[in-house]
């Protein structure tokens, strides 16, 4: 299939992760985390450290920070609450990965319905989508607090697919993400997983279950067409 096609023979729902997939949000997350640490007299985290803690949602982020830095687990709820007061406004350092907007425009033009399924809380997710100009692409946004469970549980991915019209029992769609949480959720949901390799994964690509992988968003539309047509 040529990339200049205007339609897809068999369009399907496409669900995207957010942090580490469409946007590089680690600098904003690091800044908000370090503000909380600073007000508690604790040393700042490096960007590399934050990369290693992202993926499981805010609660997991802070459990990992507490464990890595030898902090008291009893302070977990306090750190989370302080972080959340900053998180929705933490958009100034986040940036789209190259080619994201163009890929979404192509996929939408070809008839694919698009959704977000992220472990990021819903309001911070909506805020960064607005800031980056992506909010108009997505009919549905499932955040980390939209359901009682988060990825790697498949329920959030299934909810996003169902909201786009997929059969809950036999979902026909694709999940695109960057992490082990995403891979496990897609596998459990019974849909192909497309792995963006430039995000926040912790394992080598070859150790992650995926249908295909890509490092440049300019290649995503043709990969979707190859699978569908």
Provide the descriptors you would attach to this structure in a database record.
DNA polymerase, domain 1; 6-stranded parallel beta sheet; 9 helices; 11% strand; 229 residues; 2 domains; Rossmann fold; alpha/beta; two-stranded antiparallel sheet
Question: How would you describe the overall organization of this protein?
Answer:
By secondary structure, the protein is α/β, with parallel strands linked by helices. It has two domains: 14-24 and 94-228, Rossmann fold (3-Layer(aba) Sandwich); 26-87, DNA polymerase, domain 1 (Orthogonal Bundle). Helices cover 41% and strands 11% of the residues. It has helices at 26-39, 47-53, 58-69, 76-87, 100-109, 122-132, 155-163, 180-189, 220-228; strands at residues 14-16, 23-24, 95-96, 114-117, 140-142, 174-177, 193-196, 212-214. The chain has a six-stranded parallel beta sheet, sandwiched between helices. The protein has a two-stranded antiparallel ribbon with strand order 2-3. Strand 6 (174-177), helix 8 and strand 7 form a beta-alpha-beta unit. It starts with 13 loop residues before the first strand and ends with a helix. Mean pLDDT is 94; it is low at 1-5.
């Amino acid at each position: 299939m040529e990339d200049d096609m205007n339609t897809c023979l068999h369009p399907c729902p496409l669900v995207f992760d957010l942090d580490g997939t469409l946007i590089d949000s680690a600098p904003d997350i690091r800044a908000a985390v370090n503000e909380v640490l600073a007000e508690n007299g604790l040393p700042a985290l490096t960007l590399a450290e934050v990369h290693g803690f992202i993926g499981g949602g805010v609660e997991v982020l802070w459990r990992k920070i507490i464990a890595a830095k030898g902090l008291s687990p009893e302070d977990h709820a306090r750190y989370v609450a302080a972080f959340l007061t900053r998180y929705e406004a933490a958009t100034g350092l986040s940036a789209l990965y190259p080619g994201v907007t163009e890929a979404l425009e192509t996929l939408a033009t070809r008839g694919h319905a698009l959704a977000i399924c992220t472990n990021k809380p819903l309001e911070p997710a909506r805020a960064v989508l607005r800031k980056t100009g992506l909010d108009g692409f997505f009919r549905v946004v499932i955040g980390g607090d939209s359901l009682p469970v988060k990825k790697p549980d498949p329920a959030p991915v299934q909810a996003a697919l169902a909201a786009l019209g997929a059969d809950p029992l036999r979902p026909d769609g694709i999940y695109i993400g960057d992490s082990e949480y995403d891979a496990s959720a897609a596998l459990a949901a019974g849909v192909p997983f497309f792995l963006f390799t430039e995000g926040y994964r912790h394992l080598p690509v070859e150790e992650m279950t995926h249908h295909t992988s890509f490092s440049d968003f300019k290649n995503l539309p043709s990969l979707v067409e190859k699978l569908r047509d």
